[in-house]
Amino acid sequence: MARRNRLAVLVLSLKLLRRLGGLRYGLTIEEMQGDLGGVSKRTVRRYLKAFKAAGVLLEGYTTSVSRCKKWRISRIRNGKASIFTQTA
């Protein structure tokens, strides 16, 4: 992967992380695609997987009204506000 391409991937993933961190109810995969300029659903899922591997507390849930799956960052861990899991 070329250096410019790696930088673009990093920028997009940080943009998504920042967007998710600012929302209480999260986003659907399709909404994330739109925010990232129409990348594929598979790319969005890779970003989410990478965030989890990095220790970000992501949670997926199904909304009761529209029955669609949304992803959000959980800010509560052991009663404390944080977006990262504790690593050893």
Question: Your description of this structure?
Answer:
- This protein is an alpha+beta fold and 88 residues long.
- It has a single domain, classed as Arc Repressor Mutant, subunit A, CATH 1.10.10.
- The model has no long low-confidence stretch (mean pLDDT 83).
Largest sheet: 2 strands, antiparallel
Round the mean pLDDT to the nearest integer and report it. 83
Helix content: 40-55%
Shape type: globular
Q: Architecture, according to CATH?
A: Orthogonal Bundle
Rg, Cα atoms, Å: 14 Å
CATH class placement: Mainly Alpha
The amount of beta strand, in percent, is 15-25%
Count of the separate structural domains: 1
CATH topology: Arc Repressor Mutant, subunit A
State the low-pLDDT regions, or none: none
- Compressed to H and E, one letter per element, the order equals HHHEEEE
How far apart lie the N and C ends?
A: 31 Å
The computed structural class is alpha+beta
CATH homologous superfamily grouping: Winged helix-like DNA-binding domain superfamily/Winged helix DNA-binding domain
Number of strands: 4
Task: Give the helix tally.
Answer: 3
Which strand order do you get reading across the main beta sheet? 1-2
Fill in the keyword field for this structure:
single chain, 88 residues, alpha+beta, Arc Repressor Mutant, subunit A, two-stranded antiparallel sheet, two-stranded antiparallel ribbon, 3 helices, 4 strands, 16% strand, globular
